[in-house]
């Protein structure tokens, strides 16, 4: 509908529409944190002015105005007026109000009679009339007040912040028009929710966005919680594995959780905290066991149905990059940043005896694949060299005729003549992050640094091969897999912390 060529040279940190929607304001991340007002439908700039030398977190138009708005941020509150094509502001005056001192403000809401409410980093809410402080609502939350929402329809105010749930308190509260009385809501997601980052209200319901990426719908009357969206939290999602016989997948993330998803219903079935950032995950061929590789060099074996711990081991001090069961479920291969692949015997129980480790690997491990007969491992490395080792001997296979005769149980390598065509023109070696061949062996999907999922024929031996491309991820794609029946493709994102499910038609 409109593209505004912004004067914000380093990025835009916040945007907000005016009451009628005719005006749009934007805030830049440059040192002056410039505030610019636009007539966005015409694509024209109305005016622009330096906002504040310190960071601005929120700028909101009053819900009944196209000319007045408030900005809050590090140790400041400013009340702005747009008049005659120019921006003017008045600083918030604290005066002699008890407990009143200028704090870092994180959120803003509005009331009738020119009232403004700002949420502070210490949990207080400041109540202003015009630009003068009237009073302080002390400890509206026990931690920062990250978000506030109000409508002039009934004037009730929703706040969200950091607060452990108790009988009287919680991370979401609904207040009267003067913020003198409130009702706290207990958010029920199966785990305690104590940090809320976004709230919205309408039609008798409150919509809540949490720090951990969940979206929850709460009924105002019955206080019932309905989890609309579950998600990994901070850090990228690196590990991904599809169940060998069911429409299920497991993801592993830097947020120290692994999560079991139902691909058909698109719902979270189970999640477990593993204590440290998790980097890779793999089902055994029978779907009974789950192996998880950790960023700290440890790896875990879990019972797949319950996600209960079965065994754990740590022979490395750096991140485990990929982990694989052999098709006969006798062996477990563990590839690390330390340029090694350790092979363990898992048939003798939780003792996990290390049989050998493959050396002479020139760089860290990218991907591992077992042969169908469990006699070979294919290793893709960080210098973009592919190697094949015998197991359990650990001997490097250098005879290309032997390698050509191997049938692989899986193919996730981005290297080799069989996948030469997945690399685009002028690509850096790091541009293609992940790949997976379908179980039927007819197609290969890839994920790259540009957020693209691509589908090729397999084998893909011609350079710059024809393909179909699919958009969705906002950042690099970290991993990709076909479901057991090739009905779905699952892809995971890095900075966007997302899991995408694509239907294969």
Walk me through this protein's architecture.
By secondary structure, this protein is mainly beta. Helices cover 1% and strands 48% of the residues. The chain is built from 1 helix and 43 strands. The chain has a 4-stranded antiparallel sheet with strand order 1-2-3-4, with no helix packed on it. It has a 4-stranded antiparallel sheet with strand order 5-6-7-8, with no helix packed on it. The longest helix has 5 residues, at 400-404. It starts with 11 loop residues before the first strand and ends with a strand. Keywords: Microtubule, Repeat, WD repeat. WD repeats lie at residues 237-271, 313-354, 470-505. Pfam families: Beta-prop_EML (PF23409), Beta-prop_EML_2 (PF23414). InterPro entries: Beta-prop_EML-like_2nd (IPR055442), Beta-prop_EML_1st (IPR055439), Quinoprotein_ADH-like_sf (IPR011047), WD40/YVTN_repeat-like_dom_sf (IPR015943), WD40_repeat_CS (IPR019775), WD40_rpt (IPR001680), WD_repeat_EMAP (IPR050630).
